[in-house]
Amino acid sequence: MKPETESELADLVAGLKDPVCIVGGGTRGISGPEARIETGALHGISLYEPGALTLVAKAGTPLAEVEAALDAEGQQLAFEPMDHRRLLDTRGEPTIGGVVAANISGPRRIQVGACRDFLLGVRFVDGRGQVVKNGGRVMKNVTGYDLVKLMSGSWGTLGVLTEVSLKVLPKPESMATLSVDAQDASSAVQVLSTALKSPFEVTGAAYDPVGKKAMLRVEGFADSVAYRIHRLTAELAGFGEVTEEEDAAALWTGIRDVHPFRGQDGDIWRLSVKPGDAAEVTARVEANQTLFDWGGGLVWLRVPNGTDVRAQLGEFSGHATLVRSDIATIMRLGRFQPEPAAVSALTKGLRTKFDPHGLFNPGMMG
């Protein structure tokens, strides 16, 4: 099912009797009911006002189309959404609605925030087939449900997005990256933490144990970047050798899209933890490969097939998401961290409110 208009989608949902899987570009390998609603025909940029730093697009608009329009005006999606295709070996085209639905956010989140922090407004069809609109084209206070924030990260379980309004930002004039020797995860986290606490506005902070390098990105006007890189180099000299990387853009694309894991077998998990806990938490897991982002707040793990990472972790402050595995393991372990009873009750209440018949992506988030 591939509705071409919002009204057609609303009529379709109103007539549903059985659950469906909501699909944007199909790049994240989500499984579910055989019946699918695809949003790809709901495409096109509805409004773009570079001077107001505002863009409105239909949910099925390819992410590449949005980024090309912004690039032509020297602007960007500051939260630099990840492209999952190489990691998950999937096809298709990422869509802006899919990015919003999953709250996909890249390395720059540590400075500017997540996708949901740039979301100004949404339109979606709920489980009754009603068109719902919330928010607008400017940041403002809301009363009642903040559906804009609620829909971002709901993975299509509350409604089918049809249009999103986003705040955009100018692209930085210059970018530079420092690498600092770090022989283990604990040392790397200290380096990342020191840099993030500095006044030098670091916009990327990652660690790849294979290269034993902590990596730090600085962006902005060229003179400012040069000054801050110079000062940051001096600040970090006590940790180990500090060098400047040449191809900074490609390096951060690789971190964003977890390129070190591509083509490798095994299951892939994503941990969200307190940055200071990253080294201790990951030491509990028998992983084949790790990658830290967000100063240690985001940890990617590649583990043997069928590994129950949550069982190895035990209790910790954060959550573990199974990103890639076979269907049997996903069914056994679930993709998302089980919610505490109180949170689960709230989640169930919200889903009952917006999707009373349980039509959208059943089982996706518990």
Describe the protein in words.
By secondary structure, the protein is α+β, with helices and mostly antiparallel strands. The chain folds into 3 domains: 6-170, Uridine Diphospho-n-acetylenolpyruvylglucosamine Reductase, domain 3 (2-Layer Sandwich); 174-256, Alpha-Beta Plaits, CATH 3.30.70.920; 259-333, Alpha-Beta Plaits (2-Layer Sandwich). The protein is 29% helix and 25% strand. It is built from 13 helices and 17 strands. The strands form 5 sheets. The chain has a 5-stranded antiparallel sheet with strand order 3-4-8-6-7. Strands 11-12-10-13 form a 4-stranded antiparallel sheet, sandwiched between helices. The chain has a 4-stranded antiparallel sheet with strand order 15-16-14-17. A hairpin with a 5-residue loop joins β6 (119-125) and β7. The radius of gyration is 21 Å and the shape is globular. The chain starts with 5 loop residues before the first helix and ends in a 12-residue tail after the last helix. The model is unreliable at 138-144 (pLDDT under 50).
Defining traits:
366 residues, alpha+beta, Uridine Diphospho-n-acetylenolpyruvylglucosamine Reductase, domain 3, Alpha-Beta Plaits, 3 domains, four-stranded antiparallel sheet, 13 helices, 17 strands, 29% helix
